[in-house]
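Pipeline run #58 for the internal structure catalog. This entry was flagged by the ingest filter as a single-chain record with no existing model, so it goes straight to prediction. Upstream metadata was stripped on purpose; only the residue string is passed forward. Reviewer on rotation: M.T. Logging verbosity set to normal.
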Amino acid sequence: MSQISSGLSGFYNTPISKALVLGVGGMTIATSILRWKPYLNLILNPHLTRDNQFWRLITSQLAFANSGELLFGCILLYQFRVIERFFGPAKFSAFVFLSSIGTKLLELGCLVSSNSLGLNILPAGPYGIIFAMLFQYYKQIPTTYKFRVLGLTFSDKSYVYFLALQYPQSFVPAICGILTGLLYHTDVGGIKKFRFPGFITRFAKSWLLPLLASTSARSSAATMEQVYGSDIRNLNTSLSNLLSQPGQASSMGRSYVETMTQGIPQTMREEEIMALMTMFPDTERQIVVAALQSANNDVNTAATILLSR
């Protein structure tokens, strides 16, 4: 069974996630080679209160302090690319920008208010952004399946939460990130409507997107055609018949969909259908259902079938 929580493999249609992984990874390696790590930490005193090095509010988010944190961070950022597919690149880039600002403001507030309790330093790394994404992952991405181990119930998303627990030193940034994610999810002040200005979007599409574009999933269609040859051809024929008569009462369509969807668990099917309809918003529901059934409930294969139409 495919995992909706993972989505299509690779960075297809997720340029922002790709930029984050490459950017954070590259900056971490560069700061290690150039010995710039002392510039990453954020210390209230002396960095902010005495030396006025407010630029550290930005640099502290650019790189991790060591390779272990980088490994787990990149795995999480890669996993969260499914959020970008859910939001779309424009909304996701705005979300990342707002999360970086929101988490740093909250972290700064924690430093100032808790300095008397001994809190004076925050670790380097985009922890706030990661945990803001983690909250969206928890709220927005459906669970594909659950299983029990030693009496405990887990899901296909559990390993992501386990990875996030590998950062005990990031407790304060984690709380700030989760609060920022909550504020965004509840749309406080209408922040979900924020988008970058048109000239920035046009510049990014013209100059940055070509550098970050990944191979389309369509490139795997030929291989899938070889593996699922007759099934895909039969499905495409049936889909063409459905599309050629979109305005009819579709008794044939309903009968076809009912036949194709027999034996699929209702809860599971609905979650997978919604995930695919998010990826293919212009595709009719019955077509998504038919593709999913033809792929034996494998979301990745169903997505490839829909892409190859």
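catalog note: The beta strands are 42-43, 121-122, 146-149, 152-155.
catalog note: The radius of gyration is 23 Å.
status: ready for reviewer M.T.
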